[in-house]
Amino acid sequence: MKTKHFLESADIKAIAAAAEAEALKNNWAVTIAIVDDGGHLLSLQRLDGAAPISAHIAPSKANTAALGRRESKIYEDVVNGGRMSFLSAPNLKGLLEGGVPIMKDGQCIGAVGVSGVKSNEDAQIAKAGIAAIGL
Description:
The chain is α+β, with helices and mostly antiparallel strands. The chain is built from four helices and four strands. Strands 2-1-4-3 form a four-stranded antiparallel sheet. Helix 1 crosses helix 4 (119-131). The model has no long low-confidence stretch (mean pLDDT 96).
C-alpha cells in the first residue's frame, strides 16, 4: 500500500497567507482559491477591490490544475494553438493561466487558482503561495 500526501489545514492557511502577501506586495486585487486533489474548494479569498467574476474564475483555474495535474496555462496554450475541440473536454472550465497544481513526491495534492490581474501575475501569486509550504 502506498502513502498518499494531502493538504492539512495549516498548509492551506500558509498557502493563502503567502499568496495574499504576494498580491498585496504588488497592489493586485485578486481572488485566491485553494482546492484539494479532486478539485474540491478548501479556501476562497477575494481581496478588496477584486472583481466579483474573479471569485468564479479562480476556483475554476484551481480545479482544472488539480484534475489535470498540470498548470492551467497548458490548456490555454492548446486552445490558442488552434485545437478548439479541446473546449469540449469535460470538467475543465478554467482554461486560463493562473491555476497551479501542488505537487509532492510526484503526486498532485491540490492546486491554487488566482484571478484578477494578468494571467502570468495570477500564476506568480499561486506559485508564491505554494512555495510557502516548501513545494
